[in-house]
Design a protein that fits this description.
Dihydrodipicolinate Reductase, domain 2; 2 domains; Rossmann fold; 9 helices; alpha/beta; single chain; 339 residues; 9-stranded mixed sheet
Length: 339
């Protein structure tokens, strides 16, 4: 079996995680042949810590032009996603892209169309729907464990933004950063996968006085195709520890997915109890699924269509209109519902 040749472009938190945590698990099936970052010092630091010796580049265009590749992992700021992916598709390279898919909805749709035309693998790094806690949540919902769903609450609440481990020049910018874009996109996409299409969005956003800074407070409602509403509360001024959670209210109880991976349940007459997910088998990480697909095996990924549909809702949240905005005309594929 030939090894897949892979490049990592962007050495922020996710690029480093790919190099040092994920790729070493699959050295028999994939080889890191090149890395790229605009900061040359970052390149040498990461190579010194890595187990391999890939070629180093500060220009992604030069890398994509000179290095024979099977797969590229795009972990640069969102404003560069479109150009990197476009060039990769033109050269017949499979693309694994960080979220959000692009820097705006127009670019996201164009990338989706380019991916279809290129007929290459295209994946967005969405993993939350396949997390053991979410798989268990889905199982309990299918079993009607809390009865018919009445409503939901989504909390994106942080004591500060950005988080201490995620400091970079763009993460607080209104164009490319903010917790809605960085964190909310994961939950939007998970909700679309688990609960179905989000068809209407109503949003109120408060921004800091600095016109370049990302959102401070958000109050929004996401309405599903079946009219169930999800109340969204966001802030960067939460007292105490951050809370990133989805609470599902049913007629017979409540399920709460707290801080990404902790699942709890209450009944009509019972207190909140933790739900074990130790027995849940997850197909994660997404990289493993991509490797399987590239080797002609079955695999599960979320592609650029999923990335685009999540971005439709994200952009409606970030650029609110008057009252509820109907996003159905913009949705594609399985997310399309009757208007």
């Amino acid at each position: 079996m030939n090894k897949q040749r892979m490049a990592v472009i962007g050495l922020g938190h996710m690029g480093r995680h790919m190099i040092h945590r994920l790729l070493p698990q699959y050295t028999e099936r994939i080889e890191l042949v090149a890395i790229c970052d605009s900061a040359e010092s970052s390149l040498h630091r990461e190579v010194a810590e890595a187990e391999t010796r890939p070629r180093l580049y500060t220009d992604y265009r030069q890398l994509l032009d000179e290095v024979p590749l099977d797969l590229v992992y795009i972990a640069v700021p969102p404003s560069l996603h479109y150009d990197v992916a476009r060039i990769a598709f033109e050269k017949g390279i499979h693309v694994f892209c960080e979220k959000p898919l692009a820097n705006c909805l127009t670019e996201a749709r164009s990338l989706m169309e380019l991916a279809e035309k290129a007929d290459m693998l295209h994946a967005v790094h969405f993993s939350l729907p396949l997390d053991p806690a979410v798989l268990k949540l889905r199982e309990l919902l299918e079993e009607q464990a809390i009865g018919q769903i009445q409503s939901m609450d989504l909390y994106l609440e942080f004591p500060q933004w950005p988080r201490a481990w995620q400091q970079n020049p763009w993460i607080t910018s209104r164009q490319q950063g903010g917790y809605l874009l960085e964190v909310g996109i994961h939950w939007i996409q998970m909700i679309q996968q688990v609960f179905g299409p989000i068809t209407h969005v109503k949003s109120e956003i408060e921004f800091p006085p600095d016109s370049n800074q990302s959102e401070s407070r958000v109050q929004a409602v996401l309405r599903l195709h079946n009219d169930i509403e999800i109340r969204l509360s966001g802030t960067d001024q939460r007292e105490g520890e951050e809370r990133v959670s989805l609470v599902v209210h049913g007629m017979e109880g409540t399920l709460a997915l707290e801080n990404w991976c902790n699942l709890y349940r209450t009944g009509k007459n019972s207190d909140l109890q933790p739900i074990s997910v130790d027995d849940v088998v997850s197909p994660l990480p997404i990289l493993k699924q991509i490797i399987q697909i590239l080797n002609g095996e079955s695999g599960l990924i979320y592609d650029f269509h999923d990335g685009y549909n999540a971005q439709v809702v994200l952009e409606a949240l970030r650029k609110p209109g008057e009252g509820f905005v109907d996003v159905r005309p913009q949705l594609m594929g399985d997310q399309v519902v009757g208007i």
